[in-house]
From TrEMBL:
TM spans (from-to): 35-56, 88-106
Protein name: Ion transport domain-containing protein
GO terms assigned for molecular function: ligand-gated calcium channel activity
Keyword 4Fe-4S: no
Entry's Gene Ontology cellular component terms: plasma membrane
Presence of keyword Hydrolase: no
InterPro entries registered for this protein in UniProt: TRPM
Length: 159
């Protein structure tokens, strides 16, 4: 009889409800009630822990999906930034700038003189394999731009 209140205090405060269980100690329904109540409390606790794990798992999945989108966008930004840069550092990069200027004038001359379009012109554009992915990218870019504009507006107001 001393073990029951301590065991049930692990789960909740049942001070008034447990007194009726110990009145008839030789009754089989009293023992069955204790066993069923203990089994019920254990089962409910297991279910609640599983529910908590499922909720954390869903939150983690949401954060992981958003994080993957942000990482892909930042990787694209880094690749885009270094796409147009010359391969050498500043003193030697002027050589590549001069070569690019000569190519630009040469293609301009071909276009004006012979109405020739350059098929080998360097273009950096990511084309989505799936058309709906392009829409997702546009929505993400517009949401990011909107969030950035809101932050900038708030910092100007705070100043």
């Amino acid at each position: 009889a001393i073990l029951y209140p301590v065991y049930y205090l692990l789960y909740t405060n049942l001070s008034g409800e447990l007194s009726g269980l110990d009145e008839s100690t030789y009754d089989t329904t009293s023992i069955a009630t204790h066993v069923l109540l203990a089994f019920h409390m254990l089962l409910i606790n297991v279910l609640l822990v599983n529910l908590l794990i499922a909720m954390f798992n869903q939150s983690f999945q949401d954060v992981q999906s958003i994080q993957t989108d942000i990482w892909n966008y930042q990787q694209y930004a880094v690749v885009r930034e270094y796409y147009d840069r010359p391969p050498l550092f500043l003193p030697f990069s002027t050589i590549f700038d001069i070569i690019a200027l000569i190519k630009m004038f040469y293609h301009w001359y071909l276009r004006v003189r012979y109405n020739y379009a350059n098929p080998l012109q360097r273009v950096f554009k990511v084309i989505a394999v799936q058309p709906e992915l392009e829409l997702v990218w546009q929505e993400f870019e517009s949401a990011s731009t909107y969030a950035y504009a809101q932050r900038e507006a708030l910092t100007k107001i705070d100043r």
